């Protein structure tokens, strides 16, 4: 874990008498922001956050989030719309400061100091419409310390390799939405960062480009780059991520591997029999439901064998029996749905107390 | 600090190229031509209005012979002191002046009646106050006629006159002050809308994640300053070439106390400072605006504030060493204007060094303040705010 940010004592003292010395406090805040504390070296986590809170008025968009992204991994932040994914990423990147909690990117509590090693694709794509494609990529690299000349060369190579060689010198306004998004993505990685943060990177892309993006993310991870991305489309996370965090209502509801997330739900048994009724029915779990001519229920704690024996003894006439492991989608719906229900309960309780 | 300047230069370079290589930059370069043309056209008309139409007309309700003597005296005086310093005379019917002035077709400010040695001036009290002396002078000259003594003035030349020099330097100071103000007013207001482009295109998110917002602000200021200098170089060269071709060295303004080379250098520095001070303030204010409409609404109070600062500095020029002048040099927004006027009138150099450091400190403080506001109200960073600057309610997060 990275060393916690220790606020500058002098700056804190100045803040206490803020009304008298607003200007001095501003300067101290500036000093703190630019200098900060000494980063912890060689962290095994590329991104860490503890008790992160960000509020907007009365709304707690991020409500005490703990997160740890292992270096070199592909990590997904999953959540329904309005869960606080974007605010979390913006807070981690230092675009906004948290109200409470600590954060660390590449072992540094001041994210901007690591800007050269970070690439960020925001949810709302932004490019200067009059800028040429290669120039836009080079500019984004230059912002993060890459010399413009090298940026231009790399931009040409990337665009050409992606089949966009003809668009190198075209202004952004003349490109399609998908092409512009590709340009922005290349701008995010042109300086060869160690950490890539992508906010809803798949939105607005067609299936082909989504596939290309998945390949690109895998390629980056193969080179040892940490990729942190947010999405509400579970399939991408299921295919790409080694670890995920499911957040809802500004809180982490689950953190672990995709497999662990899927294990949150019991395997589902689907049974189809020739016989509609018989003694074997007593062996089915109580919560069994009948749907589309088949029985559905969770795999019992004791396993499938006792049930199978009862079915055979009771001559149920098994037509088909399948045990399906739940997908990440089911786990996500269950976790996020349960979280939403819990949130509603909490709000109701708060209202009742008030 | 190094990183901020590096990032600022990247942003400045982008902005500068975006403007310089746009078609609208030609309009920007030609922009000053329009007020000059309009000024020339209306200046000519204005001069005519001043010399002819606006001079009061006094009717001569006298006998023909006396009116003729008045007119001859007027001609003689006009040749000596200039017609613009005398009222115009026009013959009027002889009669009761009060009745004549009351007639609907009367076109006189006042009427002179009676004999030349005891002329009567009839008119409204306010009008007569300014005309009494002039009519008395013309009537006296008319009475003296050809016998009026013409005293010859002998000219004696000196190489230096402290009083005249002070007057000339005051003129140079005023001219430089006006020029810096004019350029600042034209150019600093442009930064008001500078961050709207980034906000509209959502580029601000990329910038905020990659570089300190200070660098964004500084880069924007540098870009616009660079653009301003291109315009100033273009027009400065054109004017200098025009003067050397058509007017010669006689049009060179009086030399400032501090000498031309340092004065020109200080002019450039004080323009930069005036621009940076106002520009950083406007950038900070404009950055809070979400739309072009909000920026447009801000234009009027901003221009008025600039005018106020300029009038303060102009007033101070005439009172070197007085409390208002010292206040104008200390107040950061009027300081560049007051200091350039000081450079024209005083050869002391060290106050300029102090003033430049002082102004630069204020530029950085204003940028810092603008950045803090921007982070809090636009990026919604820092402590949670109940209300943003221009919105009644804080925006919802994404």
Largest sheet data of chain B: 4 strands, mixed
Largest sheet of chain A at a glance?
A: 6 strands, mixed
Structural class computed from helices and strand pairing of chain B = mainly alpha
What fraction strand of chain A? 15-25%
Count up the helices of chain A: 11
Indicate how many domains the architecture of chain A comprises: 2
| Uncertain spans of chain B | 384-398
The overall strand count of chain A is: 13
State the strand order across the main sheet of chain A: 5-6-7-3-8-9
What does this structure look like?
The complex is a heterodimer of chains A (354) and B (398). Chain A is an alpha/beta fold and 354 residues long. Chain A folds into 2 domains: 45-262, P-loop containing nucleotide triphosphate hydrolases (Rossmann fold, 3-Layer(aba) Sandwich), CATH 3.40.50.300; 268-324, no CATH class. Chain A is built from 11 helices and 13 strands. In chain A, the strands form 3 sheets. Chain A has a 6-stranded mixed sheet with strand order 5-6-7-3-8-9, with helices on both faces. In chain A, α4 runs parallel beside α6 (177-189). The longest helix of chain A is centred in the C-terminal third of the chain and has 26 residues, at 328-353. The model of chain A is unreliable at 1-41 (pLDDT under 50). Chain B is mainly α. Chain B has helices at residues 2-20, 24-30, 33-53, 64-81, 97-102, 125-144, 162-188, 194-201, 203-210, 213-247, 260-288, 292-317, 323-330, 335-345, 350-378; strands at residues 57-61, 88-91, 110-113, 120-123. Chain B has a 4-stranded mixed sheet. In chain B, α4 links the parallel β1 (57-61) and β2 (88-91). In chain B, α1 (2-20) packs across α10, α7 (162-188) runs antiparallel to α14 and α11 runs antiparallel to α14 (335-345). The interface between A and B is large, with 44 and 44 residues.
């Amino acid at each position: 874990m990275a060393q916690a940010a220790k606020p500058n004592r002098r700056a804190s003292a100045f803040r206490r008498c803020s009304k008298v010395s607003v200007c001095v406090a501003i300067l101290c805040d500036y000093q703190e922001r630019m200098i900060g504390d000494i980063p912890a070296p060689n962290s095994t986590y590329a991104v860490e956050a503890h008790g992160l809170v960000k509020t907007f008025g009365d709304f707690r968009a991020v409500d005490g989030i703990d997160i740890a992204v292992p270096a070199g991994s592909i990590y997904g932040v999953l959540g329904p719309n309005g869960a606080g994914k974007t605010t979390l990423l913006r807070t981690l990147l230092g675009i906004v400061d948290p109200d409470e909690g600590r954060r660390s990117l590449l072992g540094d509590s001041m994210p901007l100091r690591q800007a050269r090693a970070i690439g960020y694709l925001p949810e709302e794509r932004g490019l200067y419409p009059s800028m040429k494609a290669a120039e836009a990529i080079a500019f984004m690299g230059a912002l993060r310390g890459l010399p413009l000349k090298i940026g231009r060369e790399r931009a040409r190579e990337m665009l050409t390799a992606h089949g966009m060689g003809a668009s190198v010198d075209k202004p952004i306004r003349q490109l399609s939405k998908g092409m512009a998004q590709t340009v922005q993505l290349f701008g995010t990685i042109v300086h060869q960062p160690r950490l890539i943060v992508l906010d809803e990177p798949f939105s607005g892309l067609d299936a082909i480009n989504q596939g290309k993006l998945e390949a690109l993310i895998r390629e980056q991870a193969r080179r040892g780059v940490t990729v942190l991305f947010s999405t509400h489309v579970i399939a991408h996370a299921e295919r790409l991520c080694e670890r995920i965090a499911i957040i809802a209502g500004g809180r982490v509801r689950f953190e672990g591997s995709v497999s662990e997330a899927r294990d949150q739900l019991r395997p589902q048994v689907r049974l189809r029999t020739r016989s509609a009724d018989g003694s074997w029915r007593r062996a089915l779990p109580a919560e069994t439901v009948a749907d589309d001519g088949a029985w559905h229920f969770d795999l019992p704690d004791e396993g499938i064998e006792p049930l199978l024996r009862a079915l055979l003894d009771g001559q149920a006439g098994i037509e088909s029996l399948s045990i399906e492991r739940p997908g990440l989608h089911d786990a996500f719906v269950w976790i996020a749905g349960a979280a939403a229900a819990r949130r509603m309960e909490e709000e109701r309780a708060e209202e009742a107390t008030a | 600090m190094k990183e901020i300047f590096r990032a600022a230069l990247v942003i400045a370079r982008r902005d500068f190229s975006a403007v310089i290589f746009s078609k609208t930059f030609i309009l920007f370069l030609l922009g000053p031509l329009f007020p000059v043309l309009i000024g020339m056209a209306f200046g000519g008309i204005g001069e005519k209005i001043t010399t002819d139409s606006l001079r009061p007309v006094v009717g001569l309700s006298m006998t023909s012979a006396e009116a003729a003597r008045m007119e001859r005296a007027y001609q003689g005086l006009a040749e000596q002191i200039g017609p613009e310093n005398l009222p115009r005379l026009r013959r009027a019917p002889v009669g009761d002046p009060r009745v004549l002035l009351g007639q609907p077709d009367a076109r006189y400010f006042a009427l002179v009646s009676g004999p030349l040695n005891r002329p009567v001036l009839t008119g409204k009290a306010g009008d007569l106050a300014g005309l009494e002396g002039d009519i008395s002078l013309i009537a006296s000259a008319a009475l003296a006629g050809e016998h009026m003594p013409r005293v010859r003035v002998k000219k004696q030349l000196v190489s230096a006159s402290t009083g005249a020099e002070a007057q000339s330097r005051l003129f140079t100071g005023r001219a430089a002050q006006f020029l810096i103000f004019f350029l600042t007013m034209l150019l600093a207001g442009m930064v008001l809308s500078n961050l709207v482009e980034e906000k509209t295109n959502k580029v601000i998110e990329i910038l905020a994640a990659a570089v300190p917002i200070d660098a964004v602000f500084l880069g924007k200021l540098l870009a616009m300053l660079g653009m301003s200098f291109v315009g100033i170089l273009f027009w400065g060269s054109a004017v200098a070439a025009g003067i050397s071709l058509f007017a010669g060295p006689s049009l060179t303004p009086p030399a400032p106390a501090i000498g031309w080379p340092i004065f020109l250098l200080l002019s450039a520095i004080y323009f930069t400072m005036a621009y940076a001070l106002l520009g950083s303030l406007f950038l900070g204010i404009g950055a809070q605006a979400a739309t072009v409409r909000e920026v447009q609404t801000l234009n009027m109070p901003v221009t008025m504030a600039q005018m106020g600062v300029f009038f303060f500095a102009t007033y101070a020029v005439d009172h070197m060493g007085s409390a208002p002048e010292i206040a104008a040099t200390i107040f950061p927004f009027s300081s560049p204007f007051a200091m350039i006027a000081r450079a024209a009138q005083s050869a002391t150099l060290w106050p300029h060094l102090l003033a430049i450091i002082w102004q630069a400190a204020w530029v950085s403080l204003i940028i810092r303040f603008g950045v803090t506001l921007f982070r809090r109200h636009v990026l919604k960073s820092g402590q949670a705010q109940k209300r943003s600057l221009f919105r009644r309610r804080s925006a919802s997060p994404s």
